[in-house]
Design goal:
The protein is an all-alpha fold and 398 residues long. The protein contains 14 helices and no strands. The protein has a single domain, classed as MFS general substrate transporter like domains (Growth Hormone, Chain: A, Up-down Bundle), CATH 1.20.1250. Helix 1 runs antiparallel to helix 6, helix 1 crosses helix 7 and helix 4 runs antiparallel to helix 5. It is globular. It starts with a helix and ends in a 7-residue tail after the last helix.
């Protein structure tokens, strides 16, 4: 039985890893794509943006469908669609002279696939494991896998692109195929209710959930969004600073960017192992993580020294790694199984919003000053501490 749980978790953890690679692997390759396709920086940025925007829009729909028809019935076709999108982008880059339009179409399909794959993993973990300690541990592993994908992405993307610039597009379908086979043969999805509720009944149930649990649910959504906003915004700043001020790029830059993400990966894993089913402990660890995040951002506001920045980024990674698995567990374990897919998908959408907003807002703040940038990020981080402390009040019945 323990072996079955392990393989279930390994299979599920492969999905956020693959979906993260599918997007973040391209980040170090964007300048090369811009040159090869002879397109503008705005056009090349759309290769990343369309993926995230489509996912934000479709994730709640995928969550609803998974509640109605079962998790695997949504995850596996979504992985297939994402793989096809990667093949279209790769083939266009290889064979088509004016490839940009087809690459965007491929990326749109990848975004649709991502919406129906990675966000459905959280509710499926909640379905598979009956014991809340197992659920918390599983969600910690999922968050660790997601973060490990971010650690690996810039390095792997740079290595593949060194072979041929469009190879990251072709690598993605191979990774998807591995996840598809693992999901088919290793994961047995629990049965859904024999007769799913009609749409109007389901909507009434969701509205009732938000009326009864909205206070802490909205807080979790906002804090999750803030965590991803700060993470990706500061990573964007670090990436820009390394290249413009220190002339560090390529694989070396990828390794440096991996440092705070590795810290996040480590603390996510430890947190998942630690929180068990104690919801008050989840809140306390979230607050501690967000306080660390706030202090780290405040400390770097007064110095542009690269070593101070990297130390603060490492601490920020640890803080976010303490918070995210606890937030994941609160929102997954606090919702009834029949609505879990929809509610956790809204939470995932909010996290994607944070990812999408971080870099452009930081780019604007960077034009003001280093101090202004990190003062604003400090205040936003402090807001997340306040929201968690005041509005998330778990009880043993949550």
């Amino acid at each position: 039985m323990e072996d079955k749980k392990t393989w279930d978790l390994v299979s599920l953890a492969s999905i956020p890893l693959v979906m993260t690679l599918g997007n973040s692997m391209l980040i170090p390759v964007l300048p090369t794509i811009e040159k090869e396709l002879k397109i503008s920086s705005l056009q090349v940025s759309m290769i990343i943006t369309v993926y995230s925007v489509v996912a934000i829009i479709l994730i709640p729909i995928a969550g609803y469908l998974s509640d109605q028809y079962g998790r695997k019935k949504i995850i596996i076709p979504s992985l297939v669609l994402a793989a096809i999108g990667g093949l279209i982008s790769g083939w266009a880059s290889w064979q088509v002279e004016d490839a940009y339009g087809l690459i965007i179409i491929g990326r749109l399909l990848q975004g649709v696939g991502a919406a129906g794959a990675a966000p459905i993993v959280m509710p499926l973990v909640g379905d598979l494991f009956q014991d809340e300690s197992d659920v918390s541990n599983g969600l910690g592993v999922i968050e660790t896998s997601n973060t490990f994908g971010k650690v690996l992405s810039p390095i792997l993307g740079a290595v593949l692109a060194a072979w041929v610039w469009f190879m990251p597009f072709f690598a993605f379908p191979v990774f998807c195929l591995i996840s598809i086979l693992m999901m088919i043969f290793l994961v047995e999805s629990p049965p859904i209710s024999s007769k799913p509720p009609k749409l109007d009944e389901f909507i009434r149930a969701i509205k009732s959930t938000f009326q009864n649990e909205g206070r802490w649910l909205y807080a979790v959504f906002v804090v999750g969004c803030i965590c991803m906003f700060v993470l990706f915004g500061v990573l964007f700043y670090l990436s820009t600073m390394l290249e413009e001020q220190h002339n560090i790029d390529g694989i070396k830059k990828g390794i440096i960017l991996a440092i705070p993400l590795a810290a996040l990966c480590f603390s996510s894993f430890i947190t998942g192992k630690t929180i068990g089913q104690e919801k008050m402990k989840m809140k306390i660890i979230t607050v501690i993580g967000l306080v660390i995040l706030t202090i780290a951002n405040f400390s770097v506001a007064f110095s542009k020294d690269i070593y101070v920045l990297l130390t603060a980024m490492f601490a920020s990674g640890l803080g976010i790694g303490f918070a995210l698995p606890s937030l994941d567990a609160l929102v997954t374990e606090g919702i009834e199984k029949d609505q879990r897919g929809t509610i956790t998908s809204v939470y995932s959408s909010m996290r994607f919003v944070g990812v999408a907003l971080g870099p452009p807002i930081v780019a604007v703040l960077m034009k003001a000053s280093h101090f202004t940038l990190f003062l604003v990020i400090t205040l936003i981080s402090l807001l997340s501490v306040f929201i968690t402390f005041v509005f998330i009040k778990p009880t043993e019945d949550d």
